[in-house]
Design brief:
Elements: H1 5-22, H2 32-35, H3 38-55, H4 63-83, H5 91-107, H6 112-118
């Protein structure tokens, strides 16, 4: 299964902590824990876990089912973002989340390029209809 963005974010936190412990990073320059607080990571993991569970039962040939799954995960991520004052997911995080959704669908057998083409969407518009972050 595709790696969740939260796994990458946790790696960034750990790397920064190691630099702080080694004395190679000025504590005033440390920001990862603030960017990715525990609650944000946990809430995002819960949303992505539910999406992964749903993907396991998805009929990859049913566009309606696929779009419904994408809508649910995006709306749930909207709620996480809202709970964190609309600033949980900045540009880099947005790109990682969108790529995660695309790759997770692809790994489940969804031909994402064909899906979006059938619906007149551009390659990077899969989540746009519902995404607030």
């Amino acid at each position: 299964m595709v790696e969740r963005p939260t796994t990458n974010w946790r790696r960034l936190i750990a790397a920064e902590a190691a630099e702080l412990a080694a004395g190679t990073l000025d504590p005033d320059c440390a920001c990862m824990v603030d960017l990715y607080p525990h609650e944000l990571l946990s809430e995002t993991d819960a949303v992505l876990g539910a999406f992964e569970t749903e993907l396991a039962t998805l009929d990859e040939r049913d566009d309606t089912q696929v779009f419904a799954a994408v809508e649910r995960v995006v709306l749930a991520l909207n709620a996480v973002n809202e709970a964190h004052d609309e600033c949980a997911f900045e540009t880099d995080e947005r790109e990682q989340l969108c790529l995660y959704i695309d790759v997770a669908l692809t790994e489940q057998g969804v031909e994402v390029a064909a899906l979006i083409a059938r619906h007149g969407l551009g390659r990077h518009e899969l989540t746009d209809r519902w995404r607030d972050w």
